[in-house]
Structure to design on (649 residues):
């Protein structure tokens, strides 16, 4: 297997569930939520991979483990050949410089008291980079130019409240780029933005990817993932249920969950009103994961064996991988 | 027969803390027929929610309103609270985006629906409890779950409970303000399916307020596209998509990614909407329009009727019509 920039291998993330006072007195065994339960994928340089799924599927926990914002319970996360999960506090700092994050809400992620110049320069100060004042100023301007806030002079002295949502998200991306990361983790980077400016920010990320940056995008929006990502991994209840090239996953989905999700995404054309497969109920609690295939209680085509046998993520006839006993 | 709801030349101004005024809604008009589903669509700050709140007389005291809102011919705006109150919840009800905010966190959802029923004199006591159970069942919540508190329900279930409460007086119009925005794709599909069924089964007319064009395309008969406090185009959803007249409508569709179109360019509209706390000269979309010409920057186009039940506010269309 060729080595990718980021390799996530059988990642497990668990969160303890508070037992409460009654549980503690009754000495009930501690329980935990399996937020991520054996997830593997890779992101190469110049590649955008989208983790897609509904809330509670584990996509954000996966991203947080990659950033080492939460500790992995099991598995490995190799970045540039080193295991992030085992990095010490000392080796973590240079790692974090190479992996940067862009958050969903640019209204929350930017400090309202900092001017654009200060916000973009701050990461350099934190990582003690950039040398002289002139050098830092040059890097700040370069970062602003890369996010198409040009000419930089127009934006340097502004405060976040003087910027539109799209401009704010660009500043947040500039603050990530100023450290020259190899991997950008973007958690729902456009979902808080107006439709008319979303495409601009996504095209920007697309351009950064083409210039060699690796991007791991977390999103619930299949249309966006299909349009901009190279690969899509669909998650359900802590597992990847389907993974492959974006066009293949979207055009010939193999897993019943992926098929259902794709069928209910509203289309722009009113003539395309096909009812879709609306699944009943909601994603079950990750504390009580169903036996066998964890999707079987909601699956429209489940058979008896789906209740007992756990499917593995394996290549299908369509060429990409899916975790379904029936493919 | 008079239309169910007519909004005519609606204006809303908000007093600002600095003494200025924000002209949030600038002459909005539309008509809603019985059983019709209308999508009020636009981006943040376009005035769609303000318009919806004005119809229900739910604007804050800092707002001043002008224009006419006719409910089956009766101007409910004319007498302020006194004329709108008999119709609020009874004829027109609203469901908000964050169902958690619409529900009282310390009372069970069943008790809240019973309260709404009793307050409006629809039913009392055991009859009200039975009716509350029936309403919950109608929105897909088992009646026994009425004993749950809002925080014990999932986001989708809370939205269903809020819809049940809005339906307690059997209104003719349901206004749904971004009813699925905070929800997951599959839960959104469930709620849209529910709204679709309610409209069909109860002959309910729907005003769907949203930024999400595909949701309007899938659920509504007609769309009203708003920009900078004005209606820029309205018409049947099919013609809005297949033959948009206003550049904003066209660009908004083009900016929306679609699973059926993975190769086409995804467009972004440069710039930002104008500030509404100062007078606008010309067409409000002119600075961002890809087909702007001289006249657009000096003269605001009026919403002009076009064939096949549509209207657009664009100098280009006017030229075509002539």
């Amino acid at each position: 297997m060729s080595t990718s920039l980021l390799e996530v291998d059988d990642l497990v993330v668990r969160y303890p569930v508070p037992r409460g006072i009654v549980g503690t007195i009754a000495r009930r065994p501690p329980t935990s939520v399996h937020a991520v339960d054996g997830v593997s994928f890779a992101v190469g340089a110049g590649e955008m991979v989208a983790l897609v799924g509904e809330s509670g599927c584990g996509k954000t926990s996966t991203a947080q483990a990659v950033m080492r914002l939460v500790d992995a319970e099991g598995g490995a996360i190799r970045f540039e050949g080193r295991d992030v999960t085992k990095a010490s506090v000392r080796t973590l700092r240079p790692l974090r410089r190479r992996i940067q994050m862009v958050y969903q809400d640019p209204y929350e992620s930017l400090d309202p008291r900092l001017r654009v110049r200060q916000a973009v320069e701050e990461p350099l100060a934190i990582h003690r980079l950039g040398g002289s004042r002139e050098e830092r100023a040059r890097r700040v301007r370069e970062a602003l130019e890369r996010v198409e806030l040009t000419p930089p002079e127009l934006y340097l002295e502004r405060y976040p409240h003087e910027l539109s949502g799209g401009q704010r998200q660009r500043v947040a991306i500039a603050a990530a780029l100023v450290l020259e990361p190899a991997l950008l983790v973007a958690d729902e980077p456009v979902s808080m933005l107006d439709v008319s400016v979303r495409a601009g920010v996504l095209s920007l990320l697309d351009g950064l990817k083409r210039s060699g940056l690796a991007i791991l995008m977390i999103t619930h929006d299949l249309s966006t993932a299909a349009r901009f990502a190279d690969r899509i991994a669909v998650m359900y209840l802590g597992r990847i249920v389907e993974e492959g090239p974006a066009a293949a996953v979207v055009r010939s989905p193999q897993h019943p969950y992926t098929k259902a999700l794709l069928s209910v995404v509203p289309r722009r054309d009113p003539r395309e009103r096909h009812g879709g497969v609306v699944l009943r109920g909601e994603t079950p609690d990750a504390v009580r994961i169903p036996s066998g295939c964890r999707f079987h209680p909601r699956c429209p085509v489940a058979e008896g064996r789906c209740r007992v046998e756990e499917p593995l993520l394996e290549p299908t006839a369509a060429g990409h991988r899916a975790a379904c006993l029936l493919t | 027969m008079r239309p169910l709801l007519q909004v005519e030349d609606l204006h809303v101004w908000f007093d600002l803390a600095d003494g200025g005024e924000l002209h949030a809604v600038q002459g909005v008009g539309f008509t809603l027929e019985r059983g019709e589903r209308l999508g009020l669509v636009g981006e943040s700050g376009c005035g769609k929610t303000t318009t919806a709140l004005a119809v229900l007389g739910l604007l804050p005291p800092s707002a001043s309103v002008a224009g006419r809102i006719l409910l089956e011919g009766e101007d409910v705006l004319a007498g302020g609270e006194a004329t709108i109150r008999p119709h609020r919840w009874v004829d027109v009800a609203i469901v908000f985006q964050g169902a958690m905010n619409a529900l009282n966190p310390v009372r069970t959802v069943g008790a809240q629906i019973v309260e709404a029923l009793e307050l409006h004199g629809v039913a009392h006591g055991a009859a009200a409890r039975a009716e509350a159970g029936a309403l919950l069942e109608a929105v897909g919540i088992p009646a026994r779950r009425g004993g749950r508190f809002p925080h014990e329900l999932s986001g989708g279930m809370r939205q269903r409970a809020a819809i049940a409460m809005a339906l307690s007086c059997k209104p003719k119009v349901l206004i749904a303000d971004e009813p699925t925005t905070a929800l997951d794709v599959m839960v959104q599909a469930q709620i849209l399916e529910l709204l679709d069924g309610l409209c069909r089964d109860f002959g309910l007319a729907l005003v769907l307020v949203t930024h999400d064009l595909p949701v309007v395309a899938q659920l509504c008969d007609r769309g009203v596209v708003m920009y900078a406090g004005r209606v820029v185009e309205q018409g049947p959803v099919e013609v809005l998509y297949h033959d948009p007249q206003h550049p904003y409508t066209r660009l908004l569709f083009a900016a929306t990614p679609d699973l059926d179109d993975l190769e086409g360019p995804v467009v972004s509209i440069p710039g930002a909407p104008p500030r509404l706390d100062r007078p606008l000269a010309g067409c409000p979309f002119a600075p961002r329009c890809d087909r702007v010409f001289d006249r657009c920057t000096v003269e605001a186009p009026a919403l002009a009727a076009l064939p096949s039940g549509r209207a657009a506010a664009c100098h280009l269309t006017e030229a075509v019509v002539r």
